[in-house]
Design goal:
Elements (H helix, E strand, L loop, with lengths): L2 E5 L2 H14 L6 E5 L7 H7 L4 E3 L3 H5 L9 E5 L3 H11 L6 E4 L9 H8 L4 E4 L2 H11 L9 E3 L20 E5 L8 H17 L4 E5 L16 H9 L6 E3 L4 H7 L2 E4 L4 H7 L3 E5 L19 E2 L7 H7 L5 H7 L8 H12 L17 H13 L3 H14 L4 H10 L4 H12 L4
Parallel strand pairs: 1-2, 1-4, 2-3, 4-5, 5-6, 6-7, 8-9, 8-11, 9-10, 11-12, 12-13
Helix pairs in contact: 1-2, 5-14, 7-8, 14-15, 15-16, 16-17
């Protein structure tokens, strides 16, 4: 099977890397198109180049290329409306490759928004039962109730790890930082102080902060203050055993005994490398941090309550097995499942989802508007009208939604198109 993978930022490139490594597919059978984007970390580009033939076409060039016909399946690892744009562009072709898409790691926030752009693909990759349950609840009683999915898991390092036994590792703890979790300067400063206090209580240990990106690199989320700046501004002079490192995370996890994170997918990477993970509970149960997902892990603890790292190293248990399975970490969930599903779709006529958009009662005002815009993009005026009507009922005073609702009700195509152009400015 010949695969084309499309990505444009560091997070999505990591998803492609995990798929290539975990599926065991030959690099000769994979092409990776990295859409040029300023600031993409060179370290990640170096990691993915040996895994596939690499292209750097812009999205428009790629979609107009006859080269697409040489692939059996195309995996789209992009964000937002670009997912929908590619699906619509390829579905206009009389013959096209199978289309699949997915997420990178743990989906902590905006799951409904992310799914709304992915519905209609031949196959959606999800991590585990947690995500599958959420999707089934979202699309129940909608035209997408039969949306095909496959569980590809969170065990992203299936290739031989060769990590030494814990007893042979140095007394080292890695803290996996995230760019916007937490997002506020005060919370990020508090997080740094908690780590510094732990370093003071554990003089025999080295604590390494692994930033999500290096200064000057770009990621999916915009970062105002790099963690290195926060560290300097908060502490002035940090404890001698608290340092920042830019070494690759796999190398750090292979050498470290412990990993602490607020909610990073690195939690599961640590397990691959024989490094015991702990989720940081000091900032509370906050969905915007992603911490709510880790409550059932059995290792969600306050760092400030840890007497020292010797005690944590001695007492920290393995994460709860039922929780790991629910999240999608285990032998049952891996990218090989994707190749099997694609092979089945290749030999059978795929079930195409009907046109329609989820209107779950759990959908927020923002999600209703996103769904309406997706419907407008495909000319599904009935669905757009229904979703905008729901949004209008939630916020009767919102003039942008009212204008958009009146516009999609216009029957004359030319007047409706003019109204869409004029009302677009009021969407925000």
């Amino acid at each position: 099977m010949k695969l084309l993978l499309i990505a444009d930022n560091d997070s999505q490139l990591l998803a492609c890397e995990a798929l290539c490594l975990g599926s065991g597919i030959s690099p000769d059978d994979v092409t990776l198109n990295v859409i040029p984007r300023e600031g993409t970390p060179e370290s990640i580009l170096r990691r993915v180049r040996p895994l596939a033939t690499c292209w750097t076409l812009q999205l428009t060039q790629l979609l107009n290329s006859s080269k697409l016909n040489r692939f059996d399946a195309i995996g789209v690892f992009l964000t937002g409306s670009k997912l929908n744009d590619i699906r619509l562009a390829l579905e206009r072709r009389s013959k096209r490759p199978l289309l699949f898409c997915g997420f990178n790691g743990v989906v902590l926030d905006h799951f409904i928004e992310g799914i709304s752009w992915r519905l209609g693909y031949d196959l959606i990759c999800l991590s585990g039962p947690r995500d599958q349950e959420a999707l089934e609840q979202l699309v129940a009683n909608t035209p997408f109730a039969k949306q095909r999915t496959v569980l590809t898991g969170l065990q992203r390092n299936q290739v031989s790890v060769n990590a030494p036994p814990t007893s042979e590792k140095a007394k080292r703890m890695v803290f996996a930082e995230q760019v916007v979790m937490p997002a506020t300067p005060s919370e990020r400063s508090a997080m740094v102080r908690i780590l510094a206090d732990l370093a003071d209580r554990s003089p025999e240990w080295e604590i390494l902060i692994k930033p999500r990106i290096s200064p000057g690199d770009a990621t999916f989320h915009e970062v105002e203050t790099h963690i290195s700046t926060t560290l300097r501004q908060t502490l002035g002079v940090a404890p001698r055993n608290l340092n920042i490192t830019y070494k690759p995370l796999p190398d750090l996890l292979r050498e470290a005994r412990l990993l602490v994170t607020l909610s990073s997918t690195a939690f599961f990477d640590a397990l691959d490398f024989g490094c015991r993970p702990m989720a940081m509970a000091d900032l509370g149960l906050n969905p915007s941090h992603g911490s709510h997902v880790f409550v059932g892990s059995g290792v969600w603890r306050c760092v400030s309550d840890v007497s020292d790292l010797n005690a944590l190293d001695h007492d920290l248990p393995f994460p709860d097995q039922q929780w790991l399975h629910w999240m999608g970490y285990g032998a049952d969930f891996n990218p090989r499942n994707l190749l099997r599903e694609l092979s089945g779709l290749e030999t059978n006529q795929p079930i195409r989802s009907e046109t329609g958009y989820p209107g779950s009662t759990q959908s927020s005002f923002y999600q209703l508007r996103l769904g309406a815009e997706a419907a407008i993009a495909t000319g599904d005026w009935h669905s757009a009208h229904e979703l905008l009507s729901q949004a209008s009922q939630m916020r009767p005073q919102h003039r942008g939604v009212a204008r958009r609702l009146a516009t999609v009700a216009i029957r004359n195509p030319l007047l409706r198109q003019l109204g869409l152009v004029l009302s677009y400015r009021y969407l925000r």
